[in-house]
Amino acid sequence: MSNKLKGIIASNGVAIAKLFLFSKEELVIDKSNISDQDKDLHIKKVEDAISSYFNDLDYKEKNEQNEEVLNIVRAHKELLQDPYFVDTIKEKIQNENKNAELATNETVEQMVMVMSALEDEYLKERADDYKDIGFQVLCKIKNVVPKDLSKLDEECIIISKELTPSDTSNMDKEKVLGFATDLGGKTSHVSIIAQNLDIPALVGMQDVSSKIKGEEIAIIDGNQGILIVDPSEKEIEDYKSLIEKEKEEKQRLEKVKNLEAKTLDGKVCEVSANIGNIEDLKVAIEHGCDGVGLFRTEFLYMENDHFPTEEEQYEVYKEATQMLGEKPLVVRTLDIGGDKGLDYYDFPKEENPFLGYRAIRFCLDHQDIFKDQLRALLRASAYGNLKIMLPFVISTDEIKQTRLILEELKKDLDKEGIAYNKDIDLGIMVETSASIIMADKLIKYSDFFSIGTNDLTQYTLACDRGNENISDIYNNFNPAVIRSIKHVIDESHKAGKWTGMCGQFASDTKATKLLLGLGLDEFSGSASKLPKVKDIILNSNFKEEEKFALTILDLEYVKDVEESIEKHN
């Protein structure tokens, strides 16, 4: 009899194969102290280990074709070169007489703890990178050759407690048909890799790695969120038929991805991508994006050892703008502070950092830093359709102040004879309760709105999305959230302006018809989801979806909303 195990859907799709149980070595850390005369020896051990792992990464970078894996390799190289990482290890050896293993392990644990405490899901998952780097360096110090997935005998579904960036970068991608892991979330590394490879993945399965022996035939269903171990012949036949249908669907979506997102009755929407760097943009363009609805610029700051200069930023913004041509590039200004720290700047310690000194508040307080970014954005706007977006806005004063700074910078650029788009758009993210309630006033000073549903949902429901005790409350389909979205869209339309959405909800294909009916003008989300979102819009009737949305707005319970949507879709 088959055994069905539930998991969190990380990547859609279906596959049938044998299970391959992958377990990693447990490294035992030597906790003994060393003598003063051994300090230099242990510092050299660390330096040699880091150098050896860096060389491994160098080799991978030169021989790897997959863009997502290349991103991981480059990120690991950057982290290895971070002076804070190396110096902290050396200080522990030098000042505390810790041996090389212990000093490295403690430093990694500290960094993992800091990253894991962040509210931002994307950044939180960077803790996996630090864990991975620590493990690889420790293996070098201890002369242990770690197990890897580079030589697989046959097609399989990988089962593991967790998979690190190194595990997936080394694996035989031709043989891996899916992943299922005990740990991880929707934004974890393994989820991103699975989406990039277009294979099914389930994460957060708690103890799947202890429930299977390996070698069992299994079905991984990334659409329903289940792993079927030892399926019946009928289940196998049914799923084989489903896999064939999915292949046909993928081929069909290939033809759809570059079409205009226009409903059957003529409403045109934009289907755009969220990106963090140029590599993300390349992937988005491959998936037929109509533009970029969110460029997270904080990574230019966080993956650096100094505030990036105007020139450094300009080159990145210019390249992204040129790559898109006439398509819009919506760039979010610096969203740093609070939960997103910098090694080179001391932010105040706050009881509620996510609600604290961050984003536009920090920028208006540090106008020298803000002006460098705005000048870079203005200069880059000469090369295409760049728009500026302010995060975490709660008042009209913040927009007015920014507009005054922009006007001042425009005058400077005019004097210097530097080209820019004189009519550049300035919009805001709507993600706070204040911005929802004040939408009618804020739109007077904004050229557009973009709804950040990750935070809007969190703040509207007073629900910390990282708190497991109340995770069931956090739901984009909550009637209060849907009403908030509708209100924001309506206020922008009254003013003759547009509203987009850059939260994860925008690429949730279950929500596409509802958001279309609510009047959303732009959907911006994960690159891999864009063709499907576009396809749904192409096969929808706006007037019908508008009527449907009105029925949803009248409901009181999440359960009723979800059931109505399921029936309608």
Offer a concise description of the structure.
Helices cover 49% and strands 15% of the residues. Helix 3 crosses helix 4, helix 4 packs antiparallel against helix 6 and helix 21 packs across helix 23.
What does this structure look like?
The chain is of the alpha/beta class and 569 residues long. It has three domains: 3-22 and 153-231, Glucose Oxidase, domain 1, CATH 3.50.30; 36-142, PtsI, HPr-binding domain (Enzyme I, Chain A, domain 2); 253-568, Phosphoenolpyruvate-binding domains (TIM Barrel, Alpha-Beta Barrel). An eight-stranded mixed beta sheet has the order 1-8-7-3-4-5-6-2. An eight-stranded parallel barrel has the order 10-11-12-13-14-15-16-17, surrounded by five helices. The radius of gyration is 25 Å and the shape is globular. The two termini are 33 Å apart.
**How many separate helices?**
24
Question: Over all CA atoms, what is the radius of gyration?
Answer: 25 Å
Query: What is the CATH top level name of the largest domain?
Result: Alpha Beta
The CATH superfamily of the largest domain is identified as Phosphoenolpyruvate-binding domains
- Alpha-beta classification: alpha/beta
Number of domains: 3
The overall strand count is: 17
Question: Can you name the CATH architecture of the largest domain?
Answer: Alpha-Beta Barrel
Low-pLDDT residue spans: none
Strand portion: 5-15%
- Enumerate the strands of the largest sheet in spatial order, edge to edge or round the barrel: 1-8-7-3-4-5-6-2
From the 3D structure, determine the CATH topology of the largest domain. TIM Barrel
Distance between the first and last residues' Cα? 33 Å
- Mean pLDDT over the full residue set: 90
Let me know the largest β-sheet.
8 strands, mixed
Principal-axis shape equals globular
Oligomer: single chain
Helix content class? 40-55%
